[in-house]
Amino acid sequence: xxxxxxxxxxxxxxxxxxxxxxxxxxxxxxxxxxxxxxxxxxxxxxxxxxxxxxxxxxxxxxxxxxxxxxxxxxxxxxxxxxxxxxxxxxxxxxxxxxxxxxxxxxxxxxxxxxxxxxxxxxxxxxxxxxxxxxxxxxxxxxxxxxxxxxxxxxxxxxxxxxxxxxxxxxxxxxxxxxxxxxxxxxxxxxxxxxxxxxxxxxxxxxxxxxxxxxxxxxxxxxxxxxxxxxxxxxxxxxxxxxxxxxxxxxxxxxxxxxxxxxxxxxxxxxxxxxxxxxxxxxxxxxxxxxxxxxxxxxxxxxxxxxxxxxxxxxxxxxxxxxxxxxxxxxxxxxxxxxxxxxxxxxxxxxxxxxxxxxxxxxxxxxxxxxxxxxxxxxxxxxxxxxxxxxxxxxxxxxxxxxxxxxxxxxxxxxxxxxxxxxxxxxxxxxxxxxxxxxxxxxxxxxxxxxxxxxxxxxxxxxxxxxxxxxxxxxxxxxxxxxxxxxxxxxxxxxxxxxxxxxxxxxxxxxxxxxxxxxxxxxxxxxxxxxxxxxxxxxxxxxxxxxxxxxxxxxxxxxxxxxxxxxxxxxxxxxxxxxxxxxxxxxxxxxxxxxxxxxxxxxxxxxxxxxx
Length: 611
Known about the structure:
Elements (H helix, E strand, L loop, with lengths): L29 H28 L5 H7 L5 E4 L5 E5 L2 E2 L11 H10 L11 H14 L9 H10 L6 H17 L2 H11 L6 E2 L1 H9 L8 H8 L14 H17 L5 H9 L12 H9 L11 E5 L3 H16 L1 H4 L4 E8 L5 E5 L24 H10 L7 E3 L20 E3 H6 L3 H11 L2 H10 L21 H13 L2 E2 L5 E6 L2 E2 L8 E2 L3 H17 L13 E6 L5 E8 L2 E8 L14 H17 L1
Parallel strand pairs: 1-5, 3-4
Antiparallel strand pairs: 1-2, 5-11, 6-7, 6-16, 8-9, 10-13, 11-12, 14-15, 15-16
Helix pairs in contact: 3-9, 3-10, 5-6, 5-7, 9-10, 10-11, 13-21, 15-17, 15-18, 15-20, 19-20
InterPro entries: Beta-lactam/transpept-like, Glyco_trans_51, Glycosyltr_51/Transpeptidase, Lysozyme-like_dom_sf, PBP_transglycosylase, PCN-bd_Tpept
Keywords: Carboxypeptidase, Cell shape, Cell wall biogenesis/degradation, Glycosyltransferase, Hydrolase, Membrane, Multifunctional enzyme, Peptidoglycan synthesis, Protease, Transferase, Transmembrane, Transmembrane helix
Pathway: Cell wall biogenesis; peptidoglycan biosynthesis
């Protein structure tokens, strides 16, 4: 048998001993690293913020200084009824306190501009969010996110540029304002400084311009119109676009109803009641210039001056309208290019109306106060006054026969010689030969000149008999003022245009011109009666008005170069002059024609408006 072969056993070497595993590295914690990075970022962020803040703020104005410097001194003139007439510089009305205003005035601005004004601290993030939603919903900008305080900061301190830097500066200043002032103080400053179009700053100036009333008399609807202006002062200007102004006012009224400032039912009622008065006198510029020229050193150099003048807007508007109509109609046909009107209160000399020409914008030269022209027979009352003071009486007789003095022979026009007439008739019919004889009876040219000067005419006067026919040059204003003693019982007055003056809202002394007796009362009354006869049956018949005692005197110069009528009625003395700047003769225009007619038409128009 074969031998069994044992299997070969393969020796496997023993395994090498295993090396020990290296120790595991400890894991770094993430939180401390994040913390350190966060601190670093915060520090750098703060530094960057401070740098940015410094960059935004380095050229900010000093608010305390800016508050006192943002208003330039100005002179604002308003009419006797408060209607705005003119201003030098920006239009600022009277400074108003919150307590002076009806509650609906500030409520209107808060409702439409900043409903959360009483709650925020200068910036209103909720307001910004609300405006964003409203604008996205409407697809256009219908609301702004600026608070009243931000608007105030922008208006007071910043230039009108619109960029990121200005917005940040606006926010910084708003925060400062909120820290510096109470809410009521901020609202008061805002209402006195907000720009409301047409050059007006503050609610009082705008109220006077657009509605002819001070801010304290604004109705709810009027307040809504003003509150709608800051958004777009030009577009919503009630004079330029009244329909847009009303539409915007309705939005304000609805906002007022939503905030509870007015009942909801009142919103539409107020909108329906809105009325915009006509613009103030378009040609009161002559009067405004005359008042400003007379201020002298009485105007405070560093304070806004508000002057309530004596101007009667009804009479002024009537004078402008009737003169314009006359020059465009019958005056044009007769070769009359210019005219002037002045009316004063006989008792005080207060100027009630002044028109210095056809159009102030075309020619600001004031023909009522600057043009010296011969008055013709409108000077004769001073001749007859001198005669009465010398002992003559209105019923005394005087010859109307031709007269010659040193080769000079005055004519009587269409007057037919009667031989002898009364002094009253001689004045009423403006008989020249009789006037020369009355001059002689009165004491001659020197005595008549002294009487005229006593009543306010400055001269110089001719030293011959021609003075009786009005050859001395005068201004219309001087002549009207010189007639005042005939209407007020013999008191000389000085013309004045200012009734009250205020500087920064405080009254300042403004003494009215003093009156002085210059004619005995009975003599003044006799002269007035003689001039009543002139209108009743003499050359001034065109000025007569039913139910009103009108006294006056006509005047016409050689070749119809000047035509005058000076009249007195109802406590008013008013003078009219018609002519041409180059003294070109007019065609048949005499004082008893167009000037007397214009006097009557102005008074009728003014009295009709008052009625």
